[in-house]
Amino acid sequence: MKVRLLLIGKTEEDFLKSGIRDYEIRVNRYLPFDILELPVPKNSASLSQGEQKKRESELITRQFQQGDCIILLDERGKEMRSVEFSEFLNKQFVAGFKRILFIVGGPYGFDPSLKKQASFILSLSKMTFSHQMVRLFFTEQLYRALTILKGESYHHE
Question: How do 120-123 and 99-104 pair as beta strands?
Fold first, then answer.
């Protein structure tokens, strides 16, 4: 089982890049994991929010493969505690998917067509975070979930 974090745009801040890279290395001790940064659509500043979401959706869906589990990270999705997320993740592992794609969209969220293709929509919090911060928070939570599944001492309850 491979896990990929799919993003629109590059991570800009060095402190975030460093933290994300640290957790990416940690996650790879448990399973194959990578991060794919897709380019922001050209001329996106001159596009309407709807058109921008549509173009981002087109870029994202080009990355889909048969047998993928598509999980969107969206503030309006289902919230879970870390232990619940680890259980959810384990269910995806045993469901027979080839890959799990976790997707962070652009600044205006996801196009409705992409939401229809999603297997699940997950929220990291009811609070709104920058898309840059979500990358770090997600990679840490993925690592935490894997340590919970392995019964390791990283997570405390």
Answer: unpaired
pTM exceeding the 0.85 threshold for the entire prediction? yes
Whether residue 156 is contained in a domain is answered as: no
Q: How far apart are CA 44 and CA 52, in angstroms?
A: 6
Distances 79 to 73, 75, 103, 114, 153 between C-alpha atoms, Å: 10, 9, 16, 19, 23
Specify the residue for token string 């460093």: 18
Give me the CATH number covering residue 80: 3.40.1280.10
Residue 127: C-alpha distances to residues 64, 81, 100 (Å): 29, 15, 25
Q: Phi, psi (5° rounding) for residue 4?
A: -130, 140
Give 23-61 pLDDT, tens digit per residue. 999 999 999 999 999 998 888 788 899 999 999 999 999
**Residue 157 counted as domain residue:** no
